[in-house]
Write a structure and sequence with these properties.
about 425 residues; alpha/beta; Collagenase (Catalytic Domain); 8 helices; 17 strands; globular; binds zinc ion; M6 family metalloprotease domain-containing protein
């Protein structure tokens, strides 16, 4: 049982438990499923080229092929590339029974330029995200919204397949699908229920059975519905954040929230909570996406004691991530989180330690943050932010211990530039 103060208000629970379920429609994740003619180019920069024989090899954990969307490094093929210039074909669609209200470009402006700014900041400029709107008005679907049978958890077949086919057919005269890396579908907000009732937003990522357009497969597509308005009055600042979350899926990132909500990772990653105040991605996700160089990641695989420097994750340059592998599938990640960049609610700057398990699927808890201050209630006062884990970080003088696995991580100091030192001891 949890103490009552930790139970979120009903409105927050509604957002927490239903946001943006990913259906990674990758039937047989793994090898040989990626055929020529898919518009997605796999590979996340430096990670993909890294050999398992490198010093980082023991930290390149991977899941079994049955895992649909894994935290493994490198990311399996089939997703959109996440470095360099990516072109997002962005269409605003409406329906005969839910005609778009106002200008379609106003719907676009609910997400841009904030989404591209968010990615530029989070990626240290490595992801140059270019939304493109070759169709500037509402793209009218031939069937009613109701006819597609869209509801939370709806599979790709048959409704979404029909919707994608209808989008392709309607857009094709004006759009060459070969020119784009993935598809954003911004649905008119008056179609379907309010986000307070249910969140329909979804991505179909690495979809090997997607419809083909102009000779390329529409394998990576994000759909955004309604408005993610939590009623706190912050919609104009925070409502766009569902799109970077959904696009995280097209880049291969799994959901970190679980059936219990955000209690595994809290507000430390946009794949855990994409509402409330702005937040960044975990260092592990930045590594997975190719936004960190191998030199910025250290693999603490050997027994004994080693010390490492960490610079704030939100700041460009310097060492960012120490990984302590436990086996071929899992390990502990160690990084320094501060209140800057996309992290606007960090209330206890310090070293975040979390377990990553590449063998645990999306939405099942592939990442678990270790709480340095258990049952404290947390330090944040920001609305709609998971509070308990907001003070999970370790500060100088504190130590994380997993005695069963013989792992200790001590925060031994911080210097005036904002760097921290951690000491990892393995038995
Ligand atoms: Zn999601």
């Amino acid at each position: 049982m949890q103490p009552s103060r930790r139970i979120r208000p009903r409105r927050a629970i509604a957002l927490a438990s239903v946001t943006a379920l990913t259906l990674a429609v990758s039937t047989s994740a793994g090898t040989g499923r990626h055929t020529a003619g898919t518009l997605t180019a796999a590979g996340a920069g430096p990670v993909a080229a890294l050999a398992r024989s490198s010093p980082l090899g023991p930290c390149m954990i991977s899941g079994r092929p049955t895992v649909q969307m894994s935290e493994g490094v490198p990311t399996t093929r089939g997703y959109s590339r996440s470095t360099g210039t990516v072109h997002a074909l962005t269409v605003m669609v409406d329906f005969p029974d839910a005609p778009g209200q106002g200008h379609a470009l106003d719907r676009f402006a609910e997400f841009f330029p904030q989404t591209q700014d968010w990615f530029r900041t989070s990626s240290y400029g490595r992801l140059d995200y270019r939304p493109r709107t070759p169709i500037r008005g509402w793209l009218r679907m031939p069937k009613s919204f109701h006819a597609y049978g869209i509801e939370r958890g709806a599979p790709f077949d048959p409704g979404y397949r029909q919707l994608v086919q209808d989008i392709v057919a309607s857009a094709d005269p004006k759009v060459n699908f070969k020119s784009y890396d993935f598809l954003n579908v911004l649905v008119t907000p008056n179609a379907g229920p309010s986000a307070l009732d249910t969140v329909l937003s979804v991505s179909f990522a690495g979809n090997t059975e997607a419809p083909v357009a102009d000779g390329v497969s529409v394998a990576n597509a994000s759909f955004v519905y309604s408005r993610q308005d939590d009623g706190s009055g912050s919609y104009h600042r925070t409502g766009y954040r569902v799109l970077p979350h959904e696009n995280g899926h097209v880049f291969g990132l799994p959901d970190l929230y679980t059936a219990e909500g955000g209690s595994a990772v809290g507000h430390w990653d946009i794949m855990s909570e994409d509402w409330g105040a702005n937040n960044d991605l975990l260092g592990w996700h930045k590594w997975k996406l190719g936004w960190l160089d191998p030199a910025q990641v250290r693999c603490a695989a050997a027994s004994g004691t080693s010390e490492y420097e960490l610079t704030p994750l939100a700041r460009e340059g310097g060492p960012k991530l120490v990984f302590v592998p436990l086996d071929r599938r899992s390990g502990y990640a160690v990084e320094l989180r501060t209140r800057e960049g996309n992290d606007e609610t960090v209330c206890r700057p310090g070293v975040l330690i979390y377990r990553v398990d590449a063998d645990v699927d999306t939405g099942m808890g592939p990442v678990k943050v270790h709480d340095s201050q258990q049952d404290s209630g947390g330090c944040t006062r920001s609305p709609n932010v998971h509070a308990e884990l907001s003070d999970a970080t370790f500060v100088p003088g504190e130590e994380f211990t997993d005695s069963k696995r013989g792992v200790r991580v001590a925060v031994v100091g911080a210097d005036l530039t904002g760097s921290y030192r951690v000491r990892v001891t393995r038995g």
